[in-house]
Design a protein that fits this description.
This is Beta-ketoacyl-[acyl-carrier-protein] synthase III. By secondary structure, the chain is of the alpha/beta class. The protein has 13 helices and 13 strands. The structure holds coenzyme A.
């Protein structure tokens, strides 16, 4: 059998992003919370974020980003749709089948990937596996989250960090030496950190209690300082392993696209790896932490404004609740951008 028929690497061939139009500035937040623009920008780097309108859900953002990614990828329809999200439309069913149907992808395999802010890298790895086994030829991978639905608007620590958005890519079967081939995935988790970022109510565990959940239990509770430290350790550790597997030196990386959690986290990861801050994506300044959407949104923005060019070496790394983390690498392909 020829190499071409067996290699089946997953190759990125389309990209798109979407954030809702409603801009929420630091100034607006400081009018209703005990915070300031100066505190937020100094501690996080974030200047503004986007929130959905009441009634808008994760699938709405996922469809908008998915539409753009499909347009960028050209005419061939995917046979599978993965939606990575921590804020599905409902506990049941999964959000992906609805998204696939609204995109006109009849009979596509469709399921959600739950790995919080690492979800996009986990979903990429899953899609790459589906392609390499031959289960799929072409997969739409979407990261989408509406954090404004689980963050308590009165909680000044969390309300300043998160924003809503969706980013999507299309992967097709191809060769592992092509630009766009994603690979050298390193994934990991540590469930002993479950309490460090948690929405306690709403699942099967909470149903076994005989009382109504408190306000805190219904919203995201986060131990920011501990999450900060774990995020730096796990993103830099997995990224280093990914680079070693790829045979790339840190100084050869053109773009470090880390989960957009906090500018100080991103810069600490870059420092740990020995990568200049200038090569570090900082899309969070404009959109905050958009959860599973953050990496594809940052890629889409960098591709659209010409920072990301064909042939460049890109390192992706993510960390989130779980705890869960993951990294991978690719050379940027020549893509049509639609943003
Ligand atoms: N405005 C003003 N003050 C605030 C504030 C806000 N929005 N939020 C918290 N504070 C206060 C705290 O109450 C605390 O006050 P105290 O010293 O009187 O107790 C003080 O600021 C310092 O809080 P601390 O938690 O030590 O700040 P920090 O420098 O660690 O920054 C985070 C807080 C949340 C911004 C930071 O820990 C962080 O980004 N962590 C990672 C979060 C993250 O990225 N999560 C997603 C990962 S997937």
């Amino acid at each position: 059998m020829s190499r071409r028929s067996t290699a089946r690497a997953a190759v990125l061939c389309g990209i798109g992003g979407w954030v809702p139009p409603r801009v929420v500035t630091n100034e607006e937040l400081s009018q209703r919370l005990a915070t300031t623009d100066e505190w937020i920008t100094t501690r996080t780097g974030i200047r503004e974020r986007r929130f959905v309108e009441p009634g808008e859900a994760t699938s709405d953002l996922a469809v908008a980003a998915g539409t753009r990614a499909l347009r960028s990828a050209g005419a061939v329809a995917p046979d599978a749709v993965l939606v990575s999200t921590a804020t599905p439309d409902r506990p049941l069913p999964a959000t992906a089948p609805l998204v696939a149907s609204r995109l006109g992808l009849r009979d596509a395999a469709a399921f959600d990937v739950a790995a919080a802010c690492s979800g996009f890298v986990y979903a990429l790895a899953t899609a790459a596996g589906m392609i390499s086994t031959g289960a799929s030829r072409r997969v739409l991978v979407i990261g989408a989250d509406v954090y404004s639905s689980i963050v308590d608007p009165e909680d000044r620590t969390n309300a300043i960090i998160f924003g809503d958005g969706a980013g999507a890519v299309v992967l097709r079967a191809g060769e592992d030496d092509e630009p766009g081939a994603v690979g050298h995935f390193v994934l990991g988790s540590d469930g002993t950190g479950e309490d460090l970022a948690i929405v306690a109510a709403g699942g099967s565990r909470q149903r076994t209690t005989d009382r109504s959940p408190t306000r805190a239990e219904q919203h995201l509770e986060m131990q920011g300082k501990k999450i900060f430290r774990h995020a730096v350790t796990r993103m830099s550790g997995s990224a280093r392993q990914s680079l070693a597997a790829a045979g790339w030196k840190p100084e050869e990386v053109d773009h470090l696209v880390a989960h957009q959690a906090n500018l100080r986290i991103l810069q600490s990861v870059a420092d740990e790896l020995g990568i200049d801050h200038e090569r570090c994506a900082r899309h969070l300044v404009d959109v905050g932490n958009t959860g599973a959407a953050s990496i594809p949104l940052a890629l889409d923005a960098a591709a659209a404004n010409g920072e990301l060019r064909p042939g460049q070496r890109v390192l992706l790394t993510a960390f989130g609740a779980g705890l869960a983390w993951g990294s991978c690498v690719l050379r940027w392909p020549d893509l049509a951008t639609t943003t």
